[in-house]
């Protein structure tokens, strides 16, 4: 293989206590990355898809968040029990999981329903 | 804005001492990310390009490495003095810096000129 067919970045950022914006790691970001890595391997995608830890992805109010490249599909408020669906639907079959997608209007915005 | 126009992930991984594969952080990965972030801001791209820290990108023998999405251009053996060129050429003008690109044959391979 050469490039990854898909490269998933899961936010594992943790701010200092008392920070204004929330952090993904204490909301489960690290476990998500580990579960995604395991599920990718179990689906036989180990050589074509990488589940990667990332620093702050800057969509903090929607965490835990992840982004799938090259298609730039963002998922937010992801729970451990969503991981298998993301792998089966998106990473195996190329169908993003619409119910978990962050709206374009929620990305990189100072104000949205999740960031009043 | 909505999605980032470009999202650059710079490996900041650091393995335990004595690990078989090398690590990007002690080879300058963290400083690269910081310099890239500063240069992106100085170029007026702060709202459209994100310079992101990443965990291990698994191209360890070519470090420090970074990858630019959505185009999936990989750079290796990047030095601090290369950062401005990456910003000016690739991130501002959309022209990848060919001299710094990792060859397809170097990606995700158990053996290449850098990984004998």
UniProtKB/TrEMBL annotation, chains A, B:
One of its GO terms (molecular function) is iron-sulfur cluster binding. It comes from the Bacteria. The keyword Isomerase does not apply. Keywords: Iron, Iron-sulfur, Metal-binding. InterPro entries: Thioredoxin-like_sf (IPR036249). The keyword Iron-sulfur applies. PANTHER family: NADH-QUINONE OXIDOREDUCTASE SUBUNIT F. This is (2Fe-2S) ferredoxin domain-containing protein. It comes from Terriglobus albidus.
